[in-house]
Please model this.
Amino acid sequence: QFLKQLGIHPDWQFVDVYGMEPELLSMVPRPVCAVLLLFPITEKYETFRTEEEERIKAKGQDVKSSVYFMKQTINNACGTIGLIHAIANNRDKMNFETNSSLKKFLEDSLSMTPEERAKYLETYEAIRVTHECSAHEGQTEAPSIDEKVDLHFIALVNVGGHLYELDGRKPFPINHGETSDDSFLEDAIEVCKKFMERDPEELRFNAIALSAA
Model:
């Protein structure tokens, strides 16, 4: 539904990943080109995030220039940012309608910095409106803009044979090592498991895959 509103042909769909065991992963239609993880922002996670950032700043990492990454400046828009990250890094695989609002946004923002992309999204009515409509369509009451939301979405994508974690709250993409089209879902789920292991008491984790329809 959401992809259709943004002007993307239904060759790809978002499907729930019901579990991390091999037999449940085998139910996910292939190929998979992105995984979105919904997880709780807890103290443990925030501590890890700060340490990870310092470690990467000290050691450095390899991030291909073709990775499309944007910062998150709009509260509660992490689902939209996750979706843009998933689509933007697979735009060669997507079939966009001619008047697609997302296609135009990606073309306009391709040469921008991650910060400029965030600013552009703030002014880009077509996508923001879509995000708000779909939030209201769901079963749950859409949270108000000021409400403190402690759940967050990130996107995991394969760009040039490397698995990247894209999180608009972080200063840069995180390179999680090599992957391939065939092993991408399993590799992405391994990254999701690390999030879960850092917060073993937490149950609020949910993964969805962008799969071929």
